[in-house]
Amino acid sequence: MIIVTNDDGVHSPGIIALAKSLSEFNIKVVAPKGAQSSTGMSITFHRPITMSRVSKNNYDAIALAGTPADCVFVSIHKLFKRKKVDMIVSGINLGENISMQSFFSSGTVSAAMSGSIIGIKSVAFSKVIPNTTELLTEREFRPAAEWAKRIVSFLLSEGFPPGVDLLNVNFPLKVTKSTKVQVTLMAKEEFEDYVVGRTDPRGNRYFWLAGDKIEAAEEGTDAYATLAEGKISITPISISSIQRESDRKVQDHFDKLVNTQD
Amino acid sequence: MIIVTNDDGVHSPGIIALAKSLSEFNIKVVAPKGAQSSTGMSITFHRPITMSRVSKNNYDAIALAGTPADCVFVSIHKLFKRKKVDMIVSGINLGENISMQSFFSSGTVSAAMSGSIIGIKSVAFSKVIPNTTELLTEREFRPAAEWAKRIVSFLLSEGFPPGVDLLNVNFPLKVTKSTKVQVTLMAKEEFEDYVVGRTDPRGNRYFWLAGDKIEAAEEGTDAYATLAEGKISITPISISSIQRESDRKVQDHFDKLVNTQD
User: Fold this and answer.
1) Which residues of B touch A195 (CB under 8 A)?
2) Chain B contacts of A215, Cβ < 8 Å?
3) Measured between alpha carbons, how far is A20 from A182 in angstroms, rounded to an integer?
4) SS3 of B213, please?
5) Do residue A64 and residue B113 have CB atoms under 8 angstroms apart?
6) What is the radius of gyration, based on Cα positions, of chain B?
7) Residue among B70, B76, B105, B259 with most chain A CBs within 10 A, to mutate
8) What is the mean pLDDT of chain B?
């Protein structure tokens, strides 16, 4: 069983295209009722999470009034048997997630991470979207969704690489059947005037998190450069590798703190 | 300069104790106006973040109507010069953060991570709190705050271990000057009936994320066992190590996907 979720909400064209393309697999769509972008791995403990059912053309979905991580939790611990869940597939996100910053604050990625940290392999799909105010439709995401199916099929037959428990996949603006794939590192991101400060009519300060985001490509090999070249970027992630307890040099570094106690 | 923040809000006894203990350093307290537990690395883009000033006994603080990650962003990109920020210190959180799940969903840890991912070293402090409904006071956190000062002093003079950009520090329930310190891995966490399903008076289903959390200690060496033994747990973290792009075996694994395109 594959749990399909996202952070743009159950009615997002990104998840509709994804669910349709994965319809030949045993999928269960459990997604936030509304938009939950940039909620990170936020979890809802302070209020109950209501559930509703949504019927789409090719599939039924469960909508939860919660975050992407909530959707994974409720799916795994209540709606379905955890052992039967083979993979969490999240997306297709409206906009790329190619830096460490966007990786950890993205709800789409965090839904995938919520699976990975409890041992369920996962994939987050995100896509560059056109810079327009026009409404995006499912059609926009179809070619990427076909690639998502190809990647999920590959993972179901070949498995994940050794030590890897999450793939952060980003699609460029234009995707075709012959779009190239590259294994990447995430991009380094620079923020220029990232926070805009203003003053309200009563003289109180307030801030908008926005401003211009400048991404620095690392000589054509990182996720940013890969998307800019029109290729699909796959960043393999090993969540548990963030820990450094077993490193002897790290242990030794704390000797003074650990031993000089009276 | 040290930015002091948390996720329990600017009035939490945990941050008050921490700020007091660090008062001999050049600290700036910038914390959420209200409680922001379990918000992960959630970032506020959809509305402005209002600012107010809070005066405490020994220091002034800035309160932001946003998440812990927002506090770090506004601090680094607007309130202070990024180059002058030596460290982000977050906490002391009301309750321990010793599993991967709580690590990534904790606002306290995420504030620290928001620093780490842009190259500012950081420490997250959390503490086991008594299982009581009585109001916690600053006094409860004083011995832990003294240890926090000792750890911050150590880091300012000795630096962080090689490759480590974040320390996840957890204090046991009872802390004294002679409490032992241990370098740990985070605990494996098991959820038992983690999601509680209910039905409202109209017959609609809803869920509470709660239930019983069972933590399994790994033969006395992980963060859970360390706290249970009454020791302070320090888990060294290297955020960027989650990426596996340079691993040859990982690259090779994708050969079929990367090369068999027509």
Assistant:
1) 73-74, 77-78
2) none
3) 25
4) strand
5) no
6) 20
7) B105
8) 91
Q: Is the pTM of this model over 0.90?
A: yes
Rounded to an integer, the average pLDDT of B174-183 is 95
Kindly determine whether residue A184 and residue B245, on different chains, have CB atoms separated by under 8 Å. yes
Residue closest to B148 by CA, chosen among B108, B92, B222, B226: B92
Answer whether A180 touches B (CB < 8 Å): yes
Q: Tens digits of per-residue pLDDT, B205-238?
A: 999 987 666 655 556 678 988 999 999 999 999 9
Q: Is A253 in CB contact (< 8 Å) with chain B?
A: yes
Domains of chain B with CATH codes? 2-189+216-259 (3.40.1210.10)
Tell me which chain B residues have a C-beta less than 8 angstroms from the C-beta of A251. 183
The residue behind tokens 């743009």 is A8
- For residues A112 and A117, give the distance between their C-alpha atoms in angstroms, rounded to a whole number: 9
Q: What is the pLDDT of residue B187?
A: 85
Q: Are A173 and A129 in contact (CB under 8 A)?
A: yes
Question: Inter-chain contact B105–A183, Cβ cutoff 8 Å?
Answer: no
* pLDDT single digits (tens) B145-159: 999 999 999 999 999
CA distance A134 to A118: 39
Number of H helices, E strands in chain B: 8, 13
The mean-pLDDT minimum among A160-164, B44-48, B71-75, B213-217 falls in B213-217
- B window 191-210, beta carbon within 8 A of A: 191, 193-195, 197-198, 200, 204-210
Asked if B81 reaches chain A (Cβ–Cβ under 8 Å), the answer is no
Among residues of chain A, what percentage have pLDDT more than 70?
A: 93
By Cβ distance, the residue of B42, B206, B249 closest to A40 is B42
Task: Tell me whether 0.85 is exceeded by the ipTM.
Answer: yes
Chain B residues in contact with A114 by the CB 8 A cut-off are: 101
Is residue B109 helix, strand or coil? helix
User: Which residue shows structure tokens 């809802």?
Assistant: A44
Residues facing B51 on adjacent strands: B64
Is pLDDT at A218 greater than 80 in this prediction? Answer: no
Give the pLDDT score at A259. Answer: 72
